[in-house]
Amino acid sequence: MDVAVKSRPTVVISCAVLEDLLGKRLPAGVPTVWLDVMLHNSPKKLAEALQARIDAIEEPSTVIVGYGLCGNGLVGVKSRSHTLVIPRTHDCVAIFLGSHQRYVQRFFASPNTYYLTKGWIDARDEPLADYHDYVAQFDEETADYLFEMKYKHYRRICLVGFSQQELDDYRGRAQAVADFMDRRFGGVACEETLGSTALIEALVRMPEQAAEADEEFVVVGPGGEITMEMFMRGGEPAPQPLARSGKGG
Predict the structure, then answer these.
(1) What per-residue confidence (pLDDT) applies to 95?
(2) Domain edge (last residue) among 178, 194, 210
(3) Contact 21, 183 (CB under 8 A)
(4) pLDDT at residue number 247
(5) DSSP sequence for 1-59
(6) Domain hosting residue 143, numbered range
(7) Same domain, yes or no, for 205 and 179?
(8) How many helices and strands (H and E) does the chain possess?
């Protein structure tokens, strides 16, 4: 174990969509920054916001980064004097599902699936809210065009919940999204699955364990820079979601 790294303070910089799940599992007193959920829609802005927060940390620290590769939104971000610990996932949907392996299995079984969670629905980061925003910002004809370009390939809405109560509470909205898309594109179904906090819990433990890259995490040491290749496993190609830029996150 790298004793120097272990003795460093821990800082968390994460997408706000993980605030409920990650925040409650952090030790008391860990400095935490929750970045705007909508940053995933602009990889360049995501990289800039993350870099600015890293640069603002004065003391060399172990920085838990609560993102996946996110449409290459993390590529080019520099660690400076810190050590960055990042889930080795192409899409932050994998963080909600509990592992990269489970995400890949679901992706190849049904690549045209759009995932919803409590965090995304609460943040109005979902197709139906998008459509209403388009109408308000432009007009109905333009909204129809933009909506079709972004969502026409999806044929399944999957609600990921972390308890039966959460699934019950958010099922109505997920079904409304699926129904709206079904009326427009046809053949859009709604399903739900229980998520897993396994990857989040392992992420929280990382600063106390060997600070070395492994199958589950990318570790970027001081003076390093995040690259896309760090997220590849055994030369695999990165799965390409039909939209959502890897969602988040």
Answers:
(1) 96
(2) 194
(3) no
(4) 40
(5) --HHHHTS-EEEEEEGGGHHHHHTTSPTT--EEEE-GGGGG-HHHHHHHHHHHHHT--S
(6) 100-194
(7) no
(8) 10, 8
d(CA 170, CA 204): 27
CA angle (198 as vertex; 119, 17 as ends), nearest 5? 15
**Which is nearest to 206 in space by CA: 104, 96, 88, 52?**
88
Written as six digits, the tokens of 64 are: 């838990």
Mean pLDDT of 60-70: 95
Mean pLDDT of all residues in 203-216: 78
Number of domains, the chain: 2
**Shared-domain flag, residues 144 and 227:** no
Q: Record the pTM.
A: 0.89
Please give the pLDDT value at position 6.
Answer: 52
Residue 249 has pLDDT above 70, yes or no: no
Helix, strand or coil, per DSSP, at residue 160: strand
Give the pLDDT confidence score for residue 4 in this predicted structure. 45
- Please check whether residues 139 and 176 belong to one and the same domain: yes
